[in-house]
């Protein structure tokens, strides 16, 4: 039977992400005007957009899809979450995804959504399963990279694009997953230094 990680230390981070995303959704269009990843505004010094754009959404479908992913990842890997670490991981992933888009995708003018950072959280969680000796961790890790490779080769899903009324930023998924790997590598280096 599935045992969900209900304790506050495991649940507070995802609940805060959901609450912030919902509040920003109901503050539209002002929240997008001031907080979305907007290349021109970032170039003019509005650096906070590198962080905040990840918590905005194009429409209700987009928000609900991402909140469902937050819930799914919590149910899969929430036992590994600690509020402070989860917040720091999201902060790092947010900056990593947005920085990746800003530097390596010069045609990307505007971006919103949690999916990039959620791919990073997914990679990190799969690795935690692998550390625990769970075969499912390897299946999840291989699966997420197959998905990302398929997106890079075949392009974004037309159905999802219609649902969220925007192009699916598949490169955000790639950057998020790579940032998840970087977080894993950094934690391994830290463990090695401490041992």
TrEMBL record:
The keyword Transmembrane applies. Keywords: Membrane, Transmembrane, Transmembrane helix. Gene3D superfamilies: Rhomboid-like. It is a multi-pass membrane protein. It is found in: Membrane. Residues 44-186 form the Peptidase S54 rhomboid domain. InterPro entries: Peptidase_S54_rhomboid_dom, Rhom-like_SP_proteobac, Rhomboid-like_sf, Rhomboid_protease_S54. The chain crosses the membrane at residues 12-35, 55-74, 86-104, 110-127, 170-189. This is Peptidase S54 rhomboid domain-containing protein. It comes from Paraglaciecola agarilytica NO2.
């Amino acid at each position: 039977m599935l045992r969900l990680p209900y304790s506050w230390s495991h649940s507070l981070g995802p609940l805060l992400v959901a609450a912030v995303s919902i509040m920003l959704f109901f503050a539209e269009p002002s929240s997008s005007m001031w907080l979305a990843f907007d290349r021109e505004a970032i170039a003019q010094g509005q650096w906070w957009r590198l962080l905040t754009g990840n918590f905005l959404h194009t429409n209700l479908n987009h928000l609900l899809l991402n909140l469902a992913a937050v819930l799914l990842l919590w149910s899969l890997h929430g036992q590994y979450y600690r509020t402070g670490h989860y917040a720091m991981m999201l902060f790092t992933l947010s900056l990593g995804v947005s920085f990746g888009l800003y530097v390596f995708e010069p045609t990307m003018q505007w971006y919103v959504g949690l999916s990039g950072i959620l791919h990073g959280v997914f990679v990190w969680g799969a690795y935690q399963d692998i550390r625990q000796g769970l075969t499912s961790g390897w299946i999840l890790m291989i699966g997420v990279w197959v998905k990302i490779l398929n997106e890079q080769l075949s392009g974004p899903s037309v159905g999802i694009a219609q649902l969220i009324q925007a192009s699916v930023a598949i490169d955000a998924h790639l950057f998020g997953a790579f940032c998840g790997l970087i977080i894993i590598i950094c934690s391994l280096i830290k463990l090695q230094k401490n041992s």
